[in-house]
Specification:
This protein is of the alpha+beta class and 485 residues long. The protein has helices at residues 13-16, 26-45, 58-68, 75-91, 96-117, 122-125, 132-159, 163-187, 191-199, 206-227, 237-246, 249-265, 278-318, 328-345, 359-366, 368-385, 409-424, 455-471, and strands at 348-356, 391-396, 399-405, 427-428, 436-437, 440-448, 477-481.
Length: 485
Amino acid sequence: MKLARDDLSQHGRNQEQAASLPSPSWRAALLIAGIVFAAALFGHLTRPLGFLSTFWPANALLMGVMVRNPGWAGPPGWAGAAAGYLAADFAMGGGLGMTLWLTAGNLTNASVGYLLFQRVAGMDRRLERPQSLLFLLLIAFAAAGSAAAVGSGCLVVYFGQSPMQAFEFFLTSEFSSNLVVLPMVLTAPPLAELAKRLGAHTAPPTWPKALLPAVILLASILIATTLGGSSAIAIPVPAILWCALSYGVFPTALLTFGLGLWQSTVLLSALTPGTAEYAAALTSHRFGVALFSLGPIMVAAINAARSRLLRELDLAANQDVLTRTLSRRAFLARSEAALARNLTENRPVALLMLDVDRFKLINDEHGHAIGDEVLVSLTEQISALLRRDDLFGRIGGEEFAVLLSGLPQPAALALAERLRDGCAQLRVPIEGHEPLAITVSIGLVWGPARPGSSLQHLLKQADAALYRAKRAGRDRVVEETLRAA
């Protein structure tokens, strides 16, 4: 292990880059129009004859796209969205008055949700904390309520529904779509990062185990579809919760979207439009789908937060805060284990002790901030030259240690010389001064792992070699052969 770099700071960074995009050009407006048109056309295809759609993802998708790309949320972007809605409605034979009215309601849902999301922290927009789900719930409901207030009158005028029935229909449609679609859009990683994640799981032995929860979820959906009835919506619950515990927030959101799509289309096909019970059953079902979708996302968010906390605790315990190398305690513990393995496998070991030359003078003349920069630059350079399994730790102050396993003596000595030379090539910029040159002295002890050769014995020998290098003029490697304890 070389530098134990903390990758946790990367959470959400790529997603936030979209916020710096310029105001939408005609290309962005066309892209938004295309997204809205395709999603709205899909929604139209789910509607029973003579009724509105049973699942309408376009508004939530538009809201999520605008939240992820605030630079697009200008007049051209919203104009493109309106054009997408109108084109989809006219393509399906909608009348002018009804189309304009419903489009106003659709845009209200997306725009109100977008404005409310701008008032929460970036990590909550990315659903990175369990409490982020509360913001999602409230914003989804507020946006749906606003859309219902604007668009439900259309159902009264054109479909003959009562005002209360129309408001409930519009509210539950928007609310359920928001909670099913938004988590998937808000947590989706950039395509490059997604490809990288998939590439990290290409080893065939990992796939069957990794896919098992998703396969069980699919099987439970097929069983629920076959059985039908009011309890069908609950049959996939254990499987989707298993998925939430097994995968990250985005994969869970993706699976929850698929589950919500099934619940909002296939299961609803058993209801007969026009019956007295249809409106009440539809309202109840949509509320159930909306609140159901929060459960798996919440479980995944809590599990992800717990995993991040454990990683942070592990890094705090095992990583040097400044240089990100192994801490002294972690280096000693892991080196003891590596030494035992080398003894079992009859492999040689090499221990390097490195010390920055004249480091006290650097601190005295340039200050501790420059001294810290020197240490960070050195550790980055050294880490780049080490193998993946080499152990690299900060023993104290400006002194570091490296444990190499399985290298023959010439290769260990050559690596030590490369480390010394690489550090000598570094130049640390100092404002108002010439760049600072750095050198290190290295003590190297090499030999076959022997019974009774403890890590402390290796450290003592390497430390003695290091001080010989210092006395011989610094910026050099002094080697010793491992002696019996």
